[in-house]
Design goal:
The complex is a heterodimer.
Chain A: E1 7-12, H1 17-32, E2 36-41, H2 61-69, H3 87-98, H4 104-113, E3 117-121, H5 122-127, E4 140-142, H6 144-152, E5 156-159
Parallel strand pairs in A: 1-2, 1-5, 2-3, 3-4
Chain B: E1 3-9, H1 16-26, E2 33-38, H2 43-53, E3 57-64, E4 67-73
Parallel strand pairs in B: 1-2
Antiparallel strand pairs in B: 2-4, 3-4
Classes of the chains: A alpha/beta, B alpha+beta.
Organism (chain A): Geobacillus kaustophilus
Pfam families (chain A): DrsE_2
InterPro entries (chain A): DsrE2-like, DsrEFH-like
């Protein structure tokens, strides 16, 4: 097993609970396969990296609007289908518990534990008015070139 | 069979059995055998696929009362 490590790269564009869950399950599985794993969070996928508690930061009007309208953290994200104004996520969390599956916040924790590289797209961080201190610790900030560097050596590459 | 480590992954859903198996395997030496017990039916395909791709060998598998037991030798 001396060959170089394989790589999995995932672009998480979506901020839906179910889609982010799929991304993180695949990421954790790939890490168990001993791949180098990168999840590149862009646009609404950045919401998965937001801290739950508000962080006092200076923001302009539009930035404040975005901050208000976007879910603060993985646990508050809605479902892509059957969201029903927030009832859907409550139901899905019940079912997750019943089936002993891992809820999204724990999947993210485990991904970090397994050494999955979590990257926030710097450009969309700026667009949406997010400040680095509003995002969880231990993540990196990068752009398309860094992503492509990882992906071009990648064996599995997904856009979710 | 000489089992070096037993992993109880019963009741855990995807991706946990594979994640736990990987962690347990990291602690073993090449040639040692890991026993994995799981109730995840997906593991029937998941664990052999993972073992093969990671260079390990599934020596034996059995199913009893809904519990799947794998013996996997580290590559």
């Amino acid at each position: 097993m001396a060959q170089p490590k394989k790589k999995t790269t995932i672009i998480l564009f979506s901020g839906d609970y179910d889609k982010a869950m799929a991304a993180y399950i695949i990421a954790n599985g790939a890490a168990a396969y001993d791949h180098d794993v990168t999840i590149f969070h862009t646009f609404w996928g950045l919401n998965a990296l937001r801290k739950e508690a508000p962080v006092p930061v200076q923001k302009g009007f539009l930035e404040k609007m975005f901050a208000k309208m976007m879910p603060r953290g993985a646990d508050r994200m809605g479902l892509s289908r059957m969201n029903f104004a927030g009832i859907g996520p409550k139901l899905i969390k019940k079912v997750i518990k019943k089936h002993n599956a891992m809820p999204l916040p724990q999947l993210i924790e485990m991904a970090k534990e397994q050494g999955v590289k979590l990257v926030a797209c710097q450009m969309t961080v700026d667009l949406l008015g997010l400040k680095p201190e509003e995002l969880i610790d231990g993540i990196e900030f990068a752009g398309v070139a860094a992503y492509l560097a990882d992906a071009s050596e990648g064996n599995v590459n997904l856009f979710i | 069979m000489n089992v070096a480590k037993v992993l109880d992954a019963k009741g855990l859903a995807c991706p946990m059995p594979v994640v736990r198996a990987k962690k347990a395997m990291d602690e073993l030496e090449s040639g040692q055998v890991l026993e994995v017990q799981t109730t995840d039916k997906g593991a029937k395909n998941d664990l052999p696929a993972w073992a093969k791709t990671s260079g390990h060998t599934v020596i034996e598998m059995k199913e009893e009362n809904g519990v799947l037991t794998f013996w996997i030798q580290k590559g």
